[in-house]
Amino acid sequence: MRPTLAAVAAALCLAVVACVPGLARAEGAQVIGDRATFLGLVENRTLTRMGIRLQVGADGSIAGDAFGRPVTGAWRWSGSYFCRDLVYGSRNLGSNCQVVELRGDRLRFIADEGRGQSADLRLE
After folding, report:
1. Are 15 and 24 in contact (CB under 8 A)?
2. Domain boundaries defined on the chain
3. Relative to the CA of 75, which of 27, 108, 110, 119 has its CA 20 to 30 Å away?
4. pLDDT in tens, the chain (124 residues)
C-alpha cells in the first residue's frame, strides 16, 4: 500500500520522517551551530531514514528520494540555523529554519528554530 500524500508530507515536515513534537535536548547531543561543522558532517554522505535517502551538497542543494518520489531543494545557514526550502514530488513543502543536533551517527533536525517537531536521520 502506498502512503497518502498527507502522510508523506507530514513525514517530510523536516525533510524527513518521524516527527516528534516537543522533545527536550538530550544529554550528549551536540548542537551544530555553524555551516562549516554541518558540512563536515554531511558532505559526501547520505542522510537516511526508512524510505528516505537525501544528500545535502556544499553548493546548497538537497537531492534524494522519499517513498519512490524525488526530493529536491536548497539550503543555507542563517545564524545558528539550517534553513531549507524543500519539494517532495510536485508538492512544495516550503521553507523552515531548524536547529541541528548530532547524536552519535544521527542528526536530529528540529523545526521552527528548535521549537517544533523533530526528525532523526542516520549519517551514512
Report:
1. no
2. 5-123
3. 27
4. 455 444 444 445 444 433 333 344 556 799 999 999 999 999 999 999 999 999 999 999 999 999 999 999 999 999 999 999 999 999 999 999 999 999 999 999 999 999 999 999 999 9
| CB neighbourhood size of 15 (10 A) | 29
User: Domain 5-123 belongs to what architecture?
Assistant: Beta Barrel (2.40)
Distance CA(53)–CA(121), nearest Å, equals: 9
Amino acid at 116: G
- Give one DSSP letter per residue of the chain, joined into a string: -PPPHHHHHHHTTTSSS--BTTPPPPTT-EEE-SHHHHHHHHTT--EEETTEEEEE-TTSEEEEEETTEEEEEEEEEETTEEEEEEEETTEEEEEEEEEEEEETTEEEEEHHHHTS-EEEEEE-
Q: CB atoms < 10 A from the CB of 30, how many?
A: 11
Q: Which pLDDT belongs to residue 28? A: 76
